Batch of 4 targets.
Target 1
Amino acid sequence: MPISTDNSLQPIVFIHTQKTAGHSVRMALEDVGYEWKGGVNKHAPPRELNLANHFSFGFVRNPFNVCVSRFFYHQRPEKKNELDLLFKKFSADRNGFISWVHSLVNDDCWYDKKYNWKYTFKTQKNFLSNDDDSEILVDFVGRYEKLHDDFQFVCDKIGCENKLKNFHVNISKRKRNHRDYYDNSTKKIVESIYKDDLEYFNYEF
């Protein structure tokens, strides 16, 4: 969560939804003077933070694209933590992706004594909402698909320069459209898991 370092910067809370260019957004904010508040999980949901007197915002992304992006992100050679290794049980190709999606409903490998990894696959709407999922808590929800335009809206709102073009560094090198990775069964699984996101944010396959 970035906080203002001096009185010239409007207090903000940036909610970092996974796989929505959050790293690039954070770097762009740091470049104009914002810094991160120590001791706060960078992926903390807004319900765990004090949003009073701050402009709060986050971004969402098409869930079908998020799933593909996340799968191949954890397949990168340098990714080696416990969660990465779970993903690497699957081959880094379309067949592996299809098997991974099926594992979300058919495999208990996402549970262990230390952590329920399935919790990390919750919907973006749930992540941005209050405890009963009835209200989005942030002031503005931008879209990854309009990242630069929507981040410009944030910059205009808080009165800072848009430095995002200098820092959008975690861009996927995939050349295929996310639709190419799905078959009918995996499309239905993701539709079921992320039904709320698809309906609330009006996303389609």
Note: The two ends are 31 Å apart (CA to CA).
Target 2
Amino acid sequence: MKRLLIILSLILLGFGFVGFIAGALIATGVVKYNGELPLGDVQGFVVDTTGTIYIASGGYGTIQSYSPAGKFLRQWSARANGGSFSVGLNEQQQVVAYTVRDPRKLVFAPDGKLISESEMKIDIMAQGKSPNSIEANNARYELEGGLFPRITRTTSSTTTIVDQPLYLDLIKSPMPAWLLFAIGLVSNMILRKDELLAKLHGQRAS
């Protein structure tokens, strides 16, 4: 049983480490990935007139889009240089990102293609995050779930639109990836306490 618990602790440690490092590398642009990413540190979302949902994932520095039915469409870098950012829509229904680090306004087409980029001379921090609840297309959309975010749409009843699978939730950076790493590390040290103490005493004796 103890051996099984040690293996489990190593799995948690590995998942947490890979999830956290991968998030940092993607957020800073070192690693490129085009598939769906966990929704880590969600900064807010917007919904255009077609019902397409655009979510600002601060943990990965990306904007992820979903169809009105909640199907993942694409994701692209918000070019936030590892910092926070918020999202909005302009009159042309183009996605606008406002970055905090090196304040800029970036306008993207719905497919993620950069249309324009300009410096911002206002305090972006004063704008805060995008709202967690918006009215669009005769419906109310809300960001719910905290650590495990999801988007719901309410008309006459409430329907969950975006709800990621468990494996994406577990490797999400920065949390719970960092939490898994910490639990795995502490558990492993506790389970291997006698072995580690024996090695320490052996080194002192030599």
Note: The two ends are 33 Å apart (CA to CA).
Target 3
Amino acid sequence: MLGYIDLLTSDYVPLEDYPKYISIISDKTHRLNTLVNELFEYNTLHLGSHKLNKTEVCLNELVRQISESFLPNCEEKQLALTVDCPLENILIQIDINKMLRVFENLIINAIRYTPSNGMINITLLPITSNTATITFFNTGEVLSDETLVHIFDSYYSETNTKNTSSGTGLGLAIAKEIVLLHDGMLSVSNVTDGICFKLSLPHKQ
């Protein structure tokens, strides 16, 4: 970023090229700001500095609403997004703002790595063994054994490059920390035709 600023203050850049370089600097500044904010969020979560503000919510409605908010993103990439929920409403005590962050990170990740004309399915399963379970499936290439082990590590990517995409490399790490704060579990596995993330949360009657 400093290199682009130096260029603008030099005599080597034509005036008509200024908007292009200003746009690049703006983009890099926004990405840096996002990275700093997410790094702060991850560290506070990891150190247990966050306290949960739990309220009772209907998990069925939460899953439907957050999924529907991503329909424009899916349509832009020509992805099919389907949502399946049981007929019986599932009421659960969660910190809704933090859990929304988890859902958003998982859906954004699915959209990012699903090829065009692919499919994403989000399923809320009926309660079993006092556990509420939501699966996030997307078509696409399966993950390597190394990635399955390290995917929730901060800054990890399968190509071992950091932040080469629009992400910061912290989204899944933050999601995992929030789930752990809820005494839940977040895992990933390769399945037929794609990848499936499984979110499990304790459900008390």
Note: Residues 1-5, 159-166 have pLDDT under 50 and may be disordered.
Target 4
Amino acid sequence: MVVLNIIGQGLSVLPPIPDNVTELLCGNNNLTELPPLPPALEKLGCSRNKLTALPDLPLTLEALGCNSNELTALPVLPPTLTHLWCSNNQLTALPNLPPTLEVLSCSNNQLTALPNLPPTLSVLSCENNQLTSLPDLPPRLSRFVCINNRFPPDLQAILDRYARNLPQLIISVNQYNAQKLKLRRQMGRNIAVSYTHLTLPTILR
């Protein structure tokens, strides 16, 4: 493992990164862009910069921390990714989530919907967005934070009722989604409702 740690150095530009680097920690700088990433990179921590976009992500990447930037979109996520922290940006949508993802923190953005959640997901933080619906919740989910969104009253009632009982919450939200889908099919048209700790070092986030 080759770690390049340049956190908090006041950098506005990064030089080319050697191909053998597997962990890049460049948070808390003044970066507006990143150079091409090493092909074998496994962990990228670039939070608290001024990034407006990310380069293509290596297929080997397992953890991405890009909180507190100015991102409006994320690139395609690699199939190996297990941890994604992308809170405090300007994201309006997320790309498809890889089937390996275990932790997703996407709070404090402008998201109106979440993509389908993989069954491996155990932690989901999506508070302070513009969500009006939720996808089906994975059965392995053990932590779920979704306050300060725009859920319709009937869904919000489910969330409030089961706030301290996560397994019942998962069942209830999934049943809610199934009922709405059935109603949509019966009506033959769209209705207003759409279907809509951490194990790695904090330094990545």
Note: The longest strand covers residues 3-5.
